[in-house]
Structures are given as structure tokens and as C-alpha cells.
Amino acid sequence: MLETAIWVTGTPFSGVELVASALAEKCQSSAVAIDPYLRSNADIADVTANGFEWESVIRSAIGSPQGRQGFGTDDPAGTGRPAIVHSLRHHEAYSDILAKVGSLKILAVVANPVASIATWLDEIGPAAGSDGASPDWRGGAAEGTGNGAFGGFEDWKRITSLQIDGARRHPDRFRVIPLDAFQENRDAVVEDVLNWLGIEPGQARAHLTSDADAPAFDGPAYAANALDAVDPAVRFEIGRELVGTPLARFCDTRTLAVGAGWTGPPADRNVGKAKAGIDDLAFFGGPALFQRGAPRPIGQLVQPSAEAFSDAVDTIYETQRISNNGHLVQSLEERLKAYHSVRNCVVMASASLAIIGLLQLASRTDRRNIVLPAFTYVGLPHLARWAGFEPLFCDVDRTTHTISPTDLERLIGDDVAAVLAVHQVNAPCHHAELTEIGDRHGVPIIYDSVHALGCTLPDGTPIGALGVAEVFSLHATKMLNGFEGGYITTNDDDLAERLRKVRNFGYRNEISTEMIGLNAKLNEIHAGFALASLDEIDDVIRRNKERYDRYKAAFDGIPGVTILPYGEGYRDKNFEFALIDVSESWPLGRDETVQLLRAENALARQYYNEPLYLHSDYPSAGNRQKPNLPQSVVMPLMPVTDALSRRIIQMPVGESVSLEDIDAMGEWFRFISSTASDIIPRLRETGAPVW
User: Fold this and answer.
1) Which one, of 87, 88, 110, lies nearest residue 32 by Cα?
2) Strands, E, within 265-384: which ranges?
3) What is the location of CATH 3.40.640.10 in the chain?
4) pLDDT in tens, 63-102
5) pTM score, two decimals?
């Protein structure tokens, strides 16, 4: 019997020879490739036969000239050193080998599948396998790689699963190690393996390996280089298949992370052909203007410099702080204070949490209603409820689309705790009039300024210092992208200090609280992304202006539709939105137009579709009609809001929309205008619900 035998196994390009050689060096023994030995001895029986003598074959291989040379003796078995063989085959025979060689243990080496595939493709090059077929990363090649058969990704999954199962069935005799771990710290891995084998390492000496491919794996950087060499589509498809499986431990985290959210190769961003007839409309089954995998959205979706963001992430590692008012959050607050020309900026985890906290601290506690514009985002009244108040809706100005001072004057009373006014993208609120009304009634004015970032008043004053405080967003769809987040600007030092406590559970110190608080802290990663985005805000606004001007040119002269202008209430504008006013002379309904447009993968929306004052916050199950207003509250008709909410379309904008896309949408509207008499009856025949 062999005193100690080690079988090192794996797929081609998994570093089997390298690991076997490292073990042999430590043990003063020889690492012998069993596969060439079997191929060179034609008299050896079929290894798959039941009676195949594995121990005899291992003894013969160790006693071969190669084995004797590695041991430095003609009698390797007499040295007492372990016999080390390595193989890229015979994976189905693991149980048979263990059963027939009682002194043997199996060490399986598993490489990152992406790195293995990259190494194989690099070796085989543009040449095909032995049958002349093109290299196939999933199916591999039959022969001809110089290192045994490589079965590709499918074979890697099958063999690695066999190895994991072997380790599960035979924990004392079968071990699996990732090649990446070996490359990162080979001495520690070798020592751990030797301890598992119960072997004392001998004096290091020269050794000889056969059929080795060590140069392909020699160095910790091999995997990173290989990953960069693989087609991203291949890499991410591998990640998508492995994430969440036992095999994922052998794949790099980037491949798994991107693979988890990957939906396929990037779609073609080219614009489809112009419509020649109504059958070409996507709603009627024709080809869409934009590919489904590359729709044109309505959000900004700015991606700042990867280098700038990477520098910010480096700061996180240097400071060893990822949250709790870290260095990047403090830097972001300082930058935003300067940008808005205010004394205080308090960054929070979202604009919604910022509004909730601000309403709780700044509103009058002896009253219950928060006045909101009826023409605004559908989620805003929810925040008043979360803060403990009831929403009370006010009609808006026909031109600015912001709270009408005249209507506010009629609405405000002894039960109003605060006014939450909303600056619109095309115009700011009538802030002087609102301030006068608020002061006269003792009601604080708070501003939702999410769509006013980068805008200034006619005298050049940046939006940010109006009212008690203003709230901005760091959401990915907004002007300043921090993934998620929001912030409050104010010149009230006491309010700012209380807001900082509110965002951190109301803590006064490490163990005591002085108010009801939230966990609204922004983490350092989001702050770093926002800082990188802030560096580019002027360029973002410039590109927005180019898109807005292109919309005006592309839609010029189309009867019944007008690109809404940006008013004189702002001196500097951010051009965040492109809004279309659909008049009565436009032949289709506004909602019908949006329905047809979305079928083309242009993700337009009705702009504030339903007046909020028509909704209730207590819907029955499945009832979407009234999600915003308490049933006990009855609001009068608000004619301006009612009219605006039925005529405006929010068009695709942002970094995912090109000038050519805008031209194509302009031509699409012209086509709809010229063929409306044919479209309308067919559209209304379908009975399809309007989105």
C-alpha cells in the first residue's frame, strides 16, 4: 500500500499543476501528471472498468522516470514522502479512486470560470478546435488545447459540482480550494493543506512537473487580467447563472454583482425607421421607435466620472468610516452650502425623509393641516401624513403651476400648520407673496425645491434660502445623482442643529435622546457619488439646454402641441424637463398620445395625471381611484389644476436621450398629426385601457 498519496484534480486551466508542484516542493517529492502516463501506456485497461487498479497505476506513475527524478531516488516508495499525482480527467471516478486507494486524499483546485475561459481562448487563439469549429466558451473544445479536453463553462459547472459533492460525501478525504485563494497567499494555503494531510513539510528543493502550465497562472494578477480580456457579455452571463448557487464562491464578486442585475447584452440604441403607415406604429404591432432593452426614460440618470467616484471610495477606506456623518457627507454639506449660498445644509437619506423631518420640526404643533399644491407629485401628501398632519390642497397659478397666492389667501386659516410650496421646473413659487401671507397668519413656508436645483432668482440668488427651509433630492433621476438621498438648506442655525439630531434617532449624545428621531443618515458611498456628480452639474445643465432647444426645434410648427417655455421667474434654469402642452386642437387625447408613445419605448408620462384633491388616502382593496385625500375631507373644484392635469406630457429627457432621439420623436408626432383620422377609430376599437 502507498503510505500517503495525494490526487490533485481540476479542469484544464484551473492551476492544478501549479498547486501540485507547490505541494511537491514543500514535501521534497514529485508531482506526476497521471494523464500522460495513462495515454502512453496502451496496455493499461479502460479506467472506467470496475476492476481498474488505481493504486497500481499510481505506484507505476510515481515509479516512472519522471517520478524517480522528482524524488531524487530509484525507490520513491521507500522515502516515506507523499506520492503526488495530478489529473485533469477522471472526475466521475472520484468515489472509485477513494474506495480502491485507502491511503489517498483528493485535493480539487477550482479556478474562476471566467479566468479559465479567458486562458483557454488565449491559448487556442483564433484557431478552431480539432474539428475546425469556432471556439465556444460554453461548450469548449474536444481536444487540441495542449492541456487535455476543455469542456467550457458547462463542463466547469458539471465538474465543480462533482467536486463539491465529493467534499460533502468524504469530508476527511476530499477538499476543494479556490485557485484565487491559492494565488493570494499560496504559503498559507499550502500549509493548511499539509496540516489537513497530516504531513510535515520537508526541506524545499527543486522539482519537476510534467505537462505543466504554470506560466499561465504564475502571479496573483492573472485572474484580473483574464477577467478584463473576456467579452463582458460572456462574463455577465456567467455571473447571472452562478449568483445564488453553491458555485458562486469560485467566481469574482464583480461578475456576480453585475450578472445578478444583467438582462442581456446592451440593446441597440439606434433609432428605428420613420413610420410610413399606421401599421408601423408599435401599438398596432409595428417595430418600435426604440428598442425594448434601451427605452428613452424621463429621468436625468447622470453618471459622473468613474475616476472621481473611485477617489471618493478610496477616502472611505482611508477614513474607515462608511456612515454616521462621515468625511464625504460633511464635504458634501460644505459644497452644497456654498452652491446654494446658505449657512446650513443637512444631508439625509432621501428627500422624503427630509420633508417628513422638516414638517415635524418647523410646522406649528397646535394645528393639523399642511397646505400643498393640488398640481404636484402624487407621493407628496403621503409625507404630510407620515409627519402626523393632514394634506390640504390649494389650486395653482395657470402660468407658473405653483401655489396660487390668491387661492392660498382664501384657504389659509387657524388649522394650517405650514405651507409646503413646490417650485416647478419651469418657474419658482411666488415667494414674496407667500412669505407675506405666511408672516401675516403666523404660518411657516417650506419649499419642495427638488426641480429647482441649479436655478437662480432674477437677481441671481440661488434657490435654497427661501422660506424656513428648502428641500432638494439626490435621487438618480434628479439633477444631482447620489443614487438616493436628499438635503435641506436653511439659514436657521437652530433648525439645522435640530434636523441633524432628528436624522440620527434624536440623539443628544451617545446614550441619550432629546426628541423623536429617524434613521435618515446618508452613507458615504451615496455622498461620494453625489460629490462626483456635483463636479459636473454645469455640464449637465448645458446638455439639458441642448436637448430642450432641440425639442423646441423638432416640434416647431406641429399643430396642437407646444413645448412649454421656461418662465422669467428663473434667471438661470436647469432645463430638467421637456413638457408638451397638448391643446384641444390636437386630434388625439393626451392619454391616448402617451399610450401610443410608450408603445414606441419612449417612456413619456402624463404630467401629474389626476388632480390630487380628487383622491382619498383610504382606498378599498384594489381601488386606485382615491389614494391621497382622507375621506372626511371634501375639496372644492380647482379649475386650473383640473385643466393642467389633463393636457401636459412629460417627454423623455436626460443622459439616455440623444438629439437624434428627439428629432425622431418630433417626426413621430408629425406622423400622428397627419394620420390621426385613421389612427383614432382603430385605436378606440381596441378597447385597450389607457395607461
Assistant:
1) 87
2) 344-348, 369-373
3) 332-522
4) 666 555 554 445 555 555 677 888 888 888 899 889 888 8
5) 0.73
